Request: fold
Amino acid sequence: MIGILSTLLQVYGFVLLGRALISWIPNLSPSNPGVQILVQLTEPVLAPIRKLVPPLGGVMDISLLIAYFATVLLGQLLRSM
Reply:
């Protein structure tokens, strides 16, 4: 069971990285099906983080970074059990 959870966290980490990468593509349409899937998968995790951590300097949203590192740390914690 722990192995499955660890693997799911690792996969979700890749989903978060995908979300970060699409944010760097300037002409990528938000209506693109791939973009919509990534947003639907990540927004339930990122929205609560955004409520707790305001953007740095009022501009830079670090919720994705926090979610990614939390996912990595949780995965490592599970693997060490």
About this structure: The chain has one domain: 2-80.
